[in-house]
Design a protein that fits this description.
Layout: E1 12-13, H1 35-46, H2 52-67, E2 70-75, H3 81-96, E3 99-104, H4 107-129, E4 135-137, H5 147-152, H6 172-183, H7 201-205, H8 227-235, E5 240-244, H9 245-254, E6 262-267, H10 273-281, E7 283-286, H11 287-296, H12 303-321, E8 326-327, H13 335-353, H14 360-363, H15 365-390, E9 402-411, E10 414-423, H16 427-435, E11 439-444, H17 454-460, E12 474-477, E13 489-495, H18 500-503, E14 504-508, H19 522-535, E15 539-542, H20 546-559, E16 564-566, H21 572-581, E17 586-589, H22 591-596, E18 606-609, H23 620-631, H24 636-653, E19 664-668, H25 672-675, H26 679-683, E20 690-692, H27 695-708
Parallel strand pairs: 2-11, 2-13, 3-5, 3-6, 4-5, 6-11, 14-19, 14-20, 15-17, 15-18, 16-17, 18-19
Antiparallel strand pairs: 1-12, 7-10, 8-9, 9-10, 12-13
Helix pairs in contact: 1-3, 1-4, 2-3, 3-4, 9-10, 9-16, 11-12, 11-15, 12-13, 13-15, 19-27, 23-24
């Protein structure tokens, strides 16, 4: 539900305070305190301190909601951005009676919002708002137990696992499923995240269904007790629904409303939006998936129909075996015929399964569940084959909707050849299905690249910024275009409460050679050892690959007398907890640690980055997106690869300062950050630390910090 805005964007500075975002007040709204007043109540009740940047952001969000203009807000760690967007969101929901959707990229932030931030805020604002704001969490159907699957047992397409509900099953997988069956009688939510400790993905698949596999509430014999339906019903009645970017993407892509009706969407961790939407929109086609779909149908259709699909799977496997991995610019020889065979065989099975008969689900729920599972698998195979066949109808590669490539996946000696297809751009989808339908607020600690919001905005499907320049103290409002078809949006960087130049040092080891493909050299290992020694442990090492992280951890364990943890030694959450509890400990890891570690205080005073986190240069989707930018006259490397690296680099660097009392060093062991032409572009995306390339200065600083620790 999109409200038409008649107001135009405007420019202002964060230091001007909230007055630059005048909030239009309806007659009904006058009954409620305004956003600054509510924020003050919340802060006072929660025992916090007023923050000017937080108030500026909250006022900007209120302005966005009131005018219908989209807003991108960069808010550094320590701003209190969750409260800054929740207060105006809650006020709007209570005042208008409409739901606000808050979307996150990670489960950790979802849990923080639902388990901590929202309950405390609801309690704090109950008196001021006249009632307690209501909130709920909503996830994809596959995150909830399926009671029908629990009651009817396993589908019959997979005999080895059909015994898993047998009380005598002794395998680990069997024990996990038995535990899940017992838990189904105790849980009130059926939410996988509420099961502690958790279970393997394979076990969870035995007790859950995808949206396609679901019978539907009206046809399912236990539909009234469905956890997923109960969560959706609850979400339709609350003020704020917390969900994730994947659900947001499904809501946009499927054409089916999986989220409750809403008019405002707040997207936290917005720097991950494009990747998460791309992931949901990516499909694949492999011989093993085709064979699995055939097996699901084996007791539902004639044997000859199954054999035809199995034959198509074998033909697909034989064809892919002779093709090299990489992107397809056109369909290779023989692929069109093999795809047509898969498409037609899948359609033949689907036709043979036929439409659902009235009363089938109630009469034989097990057969109905098996039928839906088969249909889901067959539809995915058919649709993927059609998608590849039609991907090259457009002769101009830059105008094609999809990128298609062949991957060779290896896992524990098993090789799997898979054709994947992903959208060249998700901007059009987001523009049509998100920004045109709701008022959208996007926020993160990292939204600017090279000092501009344009890099992400264009990927989101928004028009570029006006020529005005953005910096850490400037809120840029674009004049609303006269063309009503152009989306209106404002951008705001509220800065950070940290004094980066006094609290942190950015050290670039420019004397080191550029990193190569042969792993970490002895000079790199020496540098890491000397830095960790100077810091007295207290180090988070962020590496571009697990191989590099493990190699560094093994080397440091031999050289240093401090505890060295490495990702993979234990669950990531357990490792981070150990790291935070012991100041002498060092933790090495890869991608998930770049964005998922929050360790304020004396346990962290050094962050090491082994190299600039560029994406793989042979990534087919990356190459296609770079070429598309270049075909329009742009710089493909800066717009795609460098932007990706800048965002991830900023996330990694952001691990250092997590509270106003933190001090430390970020050490980048990639000399290209100082010497390459694009180095300045990347550094413009980072906090304004004091910079040096002198290793002696850095080690002395680390030693002083270590000595000052209690």
């Amino acid at each position: 539900m999109r409200r038409v805005s008649n107001s135009s964007g405007r420019s202002a500075t964060a230091t001007d305070g909230p007055a630059q975002y005048p909030v239009a007040v309806s007659d009904r709204a006058r009954e409620l305190p305004n956003v600054p007043e509510l924020l003050e109540v919340a802060i006072r009740t929660l025992g916090g301190k007023p923050r000017k940047n937080q108030l500026t952001m909250a006022s900007a969000v209120a302005h966005s909601i009131d005018t219908g203009e989209h807003l991108a807000v960069q808010a550094g760690t320590g701003t209190g951005k969750s409260l800054a967007y929740l207060v105006p969101s809650v006020r709007h929901a209570v005042e208008s009676g409409r739901t606000v959707v808050v979307s996150t990229a990670t489960i950790a932030l979802q849990r923080q919002l639902v388990d901590r931030d929202m309950p405390r805020l609801a309690d704090a604002l109950t008196s001021a708002l006249g009632r307690r704001p209501q909130f709920a969490i909503l996830k994809g159907r596959g995150n909830y137990l399926c009671m029908n699957k629990i009651h009817t047992g396993m589908a019959q397409d997979d005999p080895p696992e059909a015994e898993l509900f047998d009380a005598f099953a002794i395998s680990r997988l069997g024990r996990e499923v038995q535990r899940l069956t017992k838990w189904s009688s105790d849980t009130e939510t059926g939410d996988r995240d509420d099961l502690v400790p958790g279970v393997s993905d394979q076990a969870w698949r035995q007790v859950s269904v995808s949206a396609r596999e679901c019978l539907g509430k009206s046809r399912c014999p236990v539909g009234e007790d469905c956890f997923a339906e109960r969560a959706r019903a609850e979400a339709a009645q609350v003020d704020v629904v917390v969900t994730n970017h994947a659900m947001l993407a499904i809501d946009a892509i499927s054409g089916i409303a999986v989220l409750p009706e809403h008019d405002v969407v707040v997207i936290d961790e917005a720097h991950e939006l494009v990747d998460r939407v791309t992931g949901v929109a990516t499909a694949e086609l492999s011989a093993s998936a085709i064979s699995a779909a055939a097996r699901r149908s084996i007791k539902i259709v004639e044997e000859q129909d199954v054999d035809r699909l199995e034959g198509a799977a074998e033909g697909w496997a034989d064809l892919l075996e002779d093709l090299p991995a990489g992107r397809w610019d056109s369909l290779p020889d023989g692929v069109s015929m093999a795809l047509a065979a898969v498409r037609d065989a899948a359609w033949n099975v689907r036709t043979a399964i036929g439409p659902s008969k009235p009363g089938m689900a109630a009469a034989d729920p097990e057969a109905a569940a098996a039928r839906n599972a088969a249909l889901s698998a067959i539809d995915e195979i058919h649709d993927s084959a059609v998608r590849v066949l039609t991907a090259f109808d457009e002769p101009d590669p830059a105008k094609r909707k999809d990128v298609v490539w062949l991957s060779v996946d290896e896992n524990r000696g098993n090789v799997r050849r898979v054709v994947r297809m992903a959208p060249l751009s998700v901007g059009g989808l987001l523009r049509a299905s998100l920004f045109a339908e709701s008022t959208v607020v996007l926020t993160s600690a990292t939204l600017t690249v090279g000092g501009s919001f344009d890099g992400l905005a264009v990927n989101w499907g928004l028009p570029p910024e006006s020529p005005a320049r953005s910096d850490t103290a400037t809120a840029i409002g674009k004049e609303a275009p006269s063309d009503a078809g152009v989306l209106r949006w404002n951008s705001l960087d509220v800065g950070s409460p940290f004094d980066h130049a006094k609290a942190g040092i950015m050290y670039v080891a420019r004397y080191l050679p550029p990193p190569g493909r042969d792993g970490l050299s002895p000079a790199f290992m020496d540098e890491i050892a000397e830095l960790v020694t100077a810091a007295g442990g207290r180090t988070l090492g962020l590496f571009s690959s697990m191989r590099a992280a493990k190699a560094a951890a093994e080397e440091m364990r031999q050289r240093l007398d401090v505890p060295i943890l490495c990702q993979g030694d234990d669950a990531t959450g357990t490792l981070v907890k150990k790291f935070a509890e012991d100041e002498a400990t060092t933790l090495f890891g890869t991608l998930s640690l770049w964005q998922g570690v929050d360790v304020p205080g004396p346990s962290l005073s050094l962050v090491i980055l082994d190299r600039i986190p560029f994406p793989r240069p042979d990534d087919p989707l990356l190459i296609a997106r770079q070429q598309a930018v270049e075909s329009r006259g742009g710089n493909g490397f800066l717009s795609v690869a460098a932007n990706h690296a800048a965002l991830l680099l900023a996330q990694g660097v952001g691990r250092l300062l997590r509270s106003v009392d933190d001090k430390g060093v970020v050490a980048v062991l990639d000399s290209r950050l100082a010497t390459a032409r694009y180095g300045g572009y990347l550094r413009a995306s980072l906090p304004p630390f004091w910079e040096t390339a002198d290793p002696k200065v850095v080690r002395q600083a680390l030693a002083r910090i270590a000595a000052s620790r209690p």
